[in-house]
């Protein structure tokens, strides 16, 4: 589940271990009679006492933070960790009480669980009341229940999963969601188009549906046209992107769109395709693919045929070949 992966991720960050958290390396700075507010970083404490603590073998906050920031340090995070991971670790040095136990639920605004084999988006996420960004790419999620998503969510990235149906996601979708990433999934059934409307996503600005199996361009556009705030759309990698008038039809059908398939839509392109949306007869549900094979090596050549005498019992060897193209 996402919750299990989340706690494992926190354990990996070592927020309670040196140089983070509380320990012999900084305990005096957070002593109750050094700071009137327990958990604050000793502000207002006697400078002489702080200096004495450092002399007794404790580390200064600056030195501890430097151990986290120096990429050659054994306590440095791997390069694939997010900036928020680094921020949490530095908070665990400066204000360790804020990232201890359930306190972290109140400060976490972004959660990135990528390639961890997650299959379930469970109710444990609802504890993250302030969560605005949830990235769950490259997992094994086939079904996601919107009731388990924090209501404050603005970014939901589900790229490279196994989502084939949006019904559960659209039961109680986060009302403020601005980006929905569904690229590299298993969507494409005509019944899914109805879930891509403003009725479910009134504030959607960016939508990624790339590399799925959408084929009905007219049907999909008729639903997407209700997304009045949509500015960024990615549809490349779907069969409908092979239609010759694909880009022009979308540019003219969605006049508020700014970027299509990572390419900016300029005034010249708007003018060039003006009126194409009123000519659906130009959209043909077929495409032509021409493949040229230059040379094949490493297979027997069947052209030289052995001339067998009539009645010969010598074995005849037959070769057959099949070339398969996957799109």
UniProtKB/TrEMBL annotation:
Transmembrane segments: none annotated. GO terms for cellular component: cytoplasm. The gene is Lrrc43. Keywords: Leucine-rich repeat, Repeat. It comes from Burhinus bistriatus. InterPro entries: Leu-rich_rpt, Leu-rich_rpt_typical-subtyp, LRR_dom_sf. This is LRC43 protein. It comes from the Eukaryota. SMART domains: LRR_TYP. SUPFAM superfamilies: Outer arm dynein light chain 1. The keyword Phosphoprotein does not apply.
């Amino acid at each position: 589940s996402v919750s299990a992966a989340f706690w494992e991720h926190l354990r990996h960050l070592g927020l309670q271990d040196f140089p983070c958290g509380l320990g012999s390396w900084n305990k005096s700075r957070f002593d109750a009679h050094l700071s009137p507010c327990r958990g604050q970083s000793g502000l207002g404490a006697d400078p002489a006492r702080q200096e004495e603590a450092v002399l007794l073998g404790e580390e200064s906050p600056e030195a501890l933070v430097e151990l986290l920031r120096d990429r050659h340090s054994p306590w440095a995070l791997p390069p694939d960790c997010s900036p928020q991971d680094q921020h949490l670790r530095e908070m665990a040095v400066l204000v360790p009480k804020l990232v201890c136990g359930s306190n972290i639920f109140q400060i976490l605004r972004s959660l990135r669980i990528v390639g961890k084999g997650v299959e379930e988006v469970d109710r444990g996420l609802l504890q993250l009341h302030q969560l605005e960004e949830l990235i769950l790419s490259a997992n094994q999620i086939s079904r996601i229940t919107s009731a388990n998503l924090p209501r404050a969510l603005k970014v939901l990235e589900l790229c490279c999963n196994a989502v084939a149906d949006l019904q559960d996601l659209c039961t109680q979708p986060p009302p403020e969601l601005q980006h929905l990433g569904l690229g590299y999934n298993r969507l494409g059934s005509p019944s899914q188009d109805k879930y891509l409307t403003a009725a479910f996503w009134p504030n959607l600005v960016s939508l990624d549906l790339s590399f799925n199996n959408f084929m009905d361009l007219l049907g999909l556009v008729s639903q997407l046209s209700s997304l009045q705030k949509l500015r960024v759309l990615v549809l490349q990698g779907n069969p409908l992107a092979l239609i010759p008038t694909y880009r022009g039809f979308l540019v003219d059908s969605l006049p508020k769109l700014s970027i299509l398939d990572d390419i900016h839509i300029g005034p010249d392109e708007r003018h060039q395709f003006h009126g194409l949306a009123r000519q659906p007869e130009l959209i043909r549900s077929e495409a032509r693919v021409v493949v040229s094979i230059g040379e094949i090596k490493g297979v027997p050549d069947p052209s030289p045929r052995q001339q067998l005498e009539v009645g010969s019992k010598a074995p005849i060897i037959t070769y057959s070949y099949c070339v398969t193209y996957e799109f």
